[in-house]
Amino acid sequence: MSSLRVCVIYGGWSSERDVSIASAWKVRPYLDELPHEFVEIELSQDRKWIQVTEHERKHVDPLRFLQDIDVALLLLHGVGGEDGVIQGFLETVGVPYTGPGVAASSIFMDKILTKHQFMALGINTPEYFTVTGAEAQDRAYLAQLWTEKAARWEQGLVVKPARGGSSFGVSVVDSEHDYVQAVNEASRYDDRILVERFITGVEVQVGLIGSSAAPETLPTLELVFNDGQSWFDPDTKYGSDRSRVSFRMPADVPNHATTYMRDVALKLYSHYGFEGYGRLDFLVPDSGLPLALEVNTITGMTPTSTFPLMAEKHGLAYGELINRLIELARSREEKVA
């Protein structure tokens, strides 16, 4: 592939802005190794496009700026970055981009819509119910939901904003009081909330790379929690103390569980026309089939992110991974043209 002019886009206005910027910092040193010209755009919190160079930061008109761009390398996370918004804009102006398209991005950014897809396709997933932002303020209604649904979930429950990532606004609780507090906390991030049954087991991630017609599964990755840690919270993901979690590749789970998770991942990847890459998160319980939890359409590329580790185990060093994603974006655009 000949040299391309690639625009690295990061920042944004979601709660995951800092994670996106950390991904950009991780990517930056590797760009000099690649046979392309790179320019950087930081999306500001007030949705302005800022070109970042070694010497200056300046506002640019995105329509004019993108006229000379061959590929957009998306390092955005959360609302405005993973939900089909930037993808739709780039398709409108004819710039190919890394990662899945508009439909897959908009569906799988939303954890409630993701649940609907799992159930429609017969994919095993934990029980759940939903709460709106208005319902989160109704103490009597929350108590009713607790009595009718959550109280019978003996191991507790997980409360999540529907359209959030990086575990921001997520809580794991086991009492009615904490459940109410968790719903209120999640409502700070989104007006739609997913309340899911907590099940103990092994958390496993399955990464994929390639076109929807020919995806490759990466080695499975198991999250091994230490010192009483029970889930992958933001402090564990991005904090300086990494002692609370370690990673095992491949995951130490039964062969039938690995086969099931890979089959589900490949099914979703092809069914929804994923392109470039993606990651699915599963829980392998003590008995029964693995449970699908979430789908990530733009995975983190920070120094502590798991997708680059899986890719490296697969034989793709960090710089090679970035180049592969750029090539996949360009080849997808050539097929459509």
Automatic annotation (TrEMBL):
Pathway: Cell wall biogenesis; peptidoglycan biosynthesis. GO terms for cellular component: cytoplasm. It holds the Pfam family Dala_Dala_lig_N. Residues 115-327 form the ATP-grasp domain. It is found in: Cytoplasm. Keywords: ATP-binding, Cell shape, Cell wall biogenesis/degradation, Cytoplasm, Ligase, Magnesium, Manganese, Metal-binding, Nucleotide-binding, Peptidoglycan synthesis. It catalyses: 2 D-alanine + ATP = D-alanyl-D-alanine + ADP + phosphate + H(+). InterPro entries: ATP-grasp, ATP_grasp_subdomain_1, D-Ala_lig_Van_CS, D_ala_D_ala, Dala_Dala_lig_C, Dala_Dala_lig_N, PreATP-grasp_dom_sf. Belongs to the D-alanine--D-alanine ligase family. This is D-alanine--D-alanine ligase. It comes from Brevibacterium luteolum.
